[in-house]
Amino acid sequence: METNTQTKRVLKGGEFLIKETSFANIRTKDELSEEQKMFGQTAEDFISSRVAPNIQRIDKQDPELVIQILKESAELGLLGAAVPEEFGGMGVDLITDTVINEEIGKGHAWAAAFAAHTGIGTLPILYFGTEEQKQKYLPGLAAGDIKAAYCLTEPGSGSDALGARTKAVLTEDGKYYVLNGQKMWITNGGFADIFTVFAKIDGEKFTAFIVDAKSEGISLGSEEEKLGIKGSSTRQVFFNNVKVPVENVLGVIGKGHKIAFNVLNIGRYKLGVLCLGGSKKACSTAINYANERIQFNVPISSFGAIKHKLAEMAVKIYAAESATYRIAGSIDEMIQNLAAKGTDKVQAKLIAAEEYSIECAILKVFGSEVLDYVVDEAVQVFGGTGFSEEYPVARAYRDSRINRIFEGTNEINRLLSVSMLVKKAMRGELDLITPAMAVQKELMSVPDFGGDSSDDFFAAEKKALKNAKKAILMTAGAAVQKFMQDLEKQQEIIMNISDMLIELYASESILLRTEKLLNTLGEEACALQIDMTRTYISDSLERINLSGKHAITAFNDGDTLRIMLMGLKRFTKYEAFDTIAARRRVADKLIEENKYCF
Ligand SMILES: Cc1cc2nc3c(=O)[nH]c(=O)nc-3n(C[C@H](O)[C@H](O)[C@H](O)COP(=O)(O)OP(=O)(O)OC[C@H]3O[C@@H](n4cnc5c(N)ncnc54)[C@H](O)[C@@H]3O)c2cc1C
Fold first, then answer.
1. DSSP 2
2. Which of the listed residues 225, 409, 411 should we mutate to test ligand 1's pocket, taking the one with most ligand atoms within 8 A of CB?
3. E-strand stretches of 304-367
4. How far is it, in rounded angstroms, from Cα 352 to Cα 18?
5. Mean pLDDT score, 453-462
6. Bridge partners (DSSP) listed for residue 149
7. Residues 46, 52, 55, 56: what is their CA dihedral angle, to the nearest 10 degrees?
8. How far, in Å, is the centroid of ligand 1 from the Cα of 332?
9. How far apart are CA 109 and CA 180, in angstroms?
């Protein structure tokens, strides 16, 4: 493995498993430019002034209001932030887009409408449209004059998206495709002006089409009655002999899967970002309530059990934020490098998002599960009032749940994170074999029981995470050796390996961020970030150990099992750290600030 280096060398996608990197090579939320902060402030002010006061009305299904607020967000440049300037947008980089979307993530059902429009609604045309298609649609999309939706899912094909049955047949005069079929769960379905529809030409060639929502033959189902994001329009869309001009084919005929999957890469990243914003909001709401609610003559925030909850929310959010900006930084860096070599910026973004598709899948899972944890604990902090619709956390709890389901369920994203890694290795893009063999050799050697004599502040944590990589390489390597091509049938094992990967990425991101902060501000100024980092890593290594144990035990026995379990224990070792005291210190700061404050 490479040693730390101060020269800027951003890891490629998936390389975090086999290489070390320096804090100098990552981006963090702590180093935003004034302009980026200003964008964040604009989005924050907009959500608190326009969305929050209207959320009850929005949740009672008021599409006119949702549209009006979308239009207002466009006037501030938010709706078209990521659309290039030549098409009427602001052309911001991914970090800036992230800062904006974090704030949008506090906007409940309205955020779902915004995200579907700017993400899966707009990106297919931005990435895959012809120049004419871009000129025709993007300025209107950025201005909020055209609203967009994305029609992939069908009653019979959700996760198995390529199993779609919607059919397209070319008319005899060669001018139109005629679409027949049914799409389901379409966000913004009730008011969208255009749909990106995936259909199979002649029942075979999976292809995307831009379809005018007013086309003859399109009809909509009624609004779905949902568990959460109630104000977001979700409908079925029926296509009955809908004529679509041939010039509305999007991308290459038969290559619709490229559009569907590539749009999902960046969509997953953005979903992680939205979840981060939602998590911060729910955490602040819980802190605020815990400070106000008196029981046994004291605020409930003074109880250790409540402090634990508040601090653990913050620890997880800090980890999610560290991972988020690390990924955004990697993608932005690659875009800049490609653009410097002459690649068109939009294409560069597409290439970069694909390069970091493993990290995007990881963030989708991690971000949505952190949000679910936070809203669940927020309800608990609220006690009975948490169960009442009169208080804000019930909505947060309901709205959170969808994030583990759309943009690829978390199971599908877990499976993908591992299969994409294995595929990269098979294509020769990522050398997993050499480090995996080195770990096998190390397993048979005498263990190094020594601590780390280095005077590096985070020497113990760095050693622990370097070893955690070995634990994953050992587990994954053995699983690949054992099952070969049949590994994909061992889903429980893949889930465990994926959980280990997610934990590693989060742990390393939090460590690198705090190390960067430490180098800038000094130990005293970031003592609580150090506490959060050590707390996360300490618990994370336990979780990595447990996942590894489940996996290894499923396909080994006798001496091999014993040796591997011993190796796992060795590779997930970390010095004892008092997480209770650390969480108390973190909680005390949250309580003092009366909000999430890191
Ligand atoms: C509110 C809402 C908004 C949505 N918006 C849109 C939209 O705008 N456009 C759009 O096209 N779609 C949209 N969707 C659809 C969404 O993307 C799908 O619901 C999702 O992809 C899952 O598909 P499914 O519901 O058919 O579940 P299924 O695919 O039937 O999955 C059911 C369960 O089985 C698991 N599973 C499935 N396959 C596997 C496998 N191979 N291995 C292991 N486990 C598996 C899943 O993880 C899940 O737990 C939306 C859905 C909802 C609920």
1. P
2. 409
3. none
4. 20
5. 90
6. 195
7. -150
8. 30
9. 30
Rg of the chain in Å (alpha carbons): 24
Q: Among candidates 84, 81, 9, which has minimal Cα distance to 42?
A: 81
Task: Write out the two tokens for 40.
Answer: 């964040």
Domains and CATH numbers, the chain: 30-147 (1.10.540.10), 149-254 (2.40.110.10), 413-593 (1.20.140.10)
User: Who lines ligand 1 at CB under 6 A?
Assistant: 116, 149-153, 158-159, 185-187, 226, 234, 402, 405-406, 409, 411-412, 491
Tell me how many degrees the CA angle 128-132-138 measures, rounded to the nearest 5.
70
Verdict on whether the full-model pTM lies above 0.70: yes
For residues 5 and 523, what is the distance between their CA atoms, to the nearest angstrom?
22
Nearest to residue 397, comparing CAs of 412, 380, 409? 380
Positive or negative, the CA dihedral 410, 412, 413, 414 is positive
The reported pLDDT for the residue numbered 9 is 75
Percentage with pLDDT > 70 across the chain: 97
Residue 517: Cβ within 10 Å count: 21
Residues in Cβ contact with 121 at an 8 Å cutoff, skipping those fewer than 6 apart: 141, 147, 148, 149, 150, 188, 192, 194, 196
Residue 4 has pLDDT above 70, yes or no: no
28-43 tens-digit pLDDT: 999 999 999 999 999 9
Provide the b/e sequence for 346-362 (b: ≥16 CB within 10 Å). bebbbebbbbbbbbbbb
Q: Is there a catalytic annotation at residue 86?
A: no
Per-residue pLDDT tens for 516-568? 999 999 999 999 999 999 999 999 999 999 999 999 999 999 999 999 999 99
Q: Which residue has the tokens 């909000």?
A: 595
Other residues' Cβ atoms within 10 Å of the Cβ of residue 552 = 22
Mean confidence (pLDDT) of the chain: 95
Q: Which residues pair with 177 in a beta bridge?
A: 170, 244
- For residue range 65-96, list pLDDT tens digits in order: 999 999 999 999 999 999 999 999 999 999 99
DSSP string, 132-180: HHHHHHHHHHHHTSS-EEEE--BTTBSSSGGG---EEEE-TTSSEEEEE
Helices (H), 556-578: 558-571
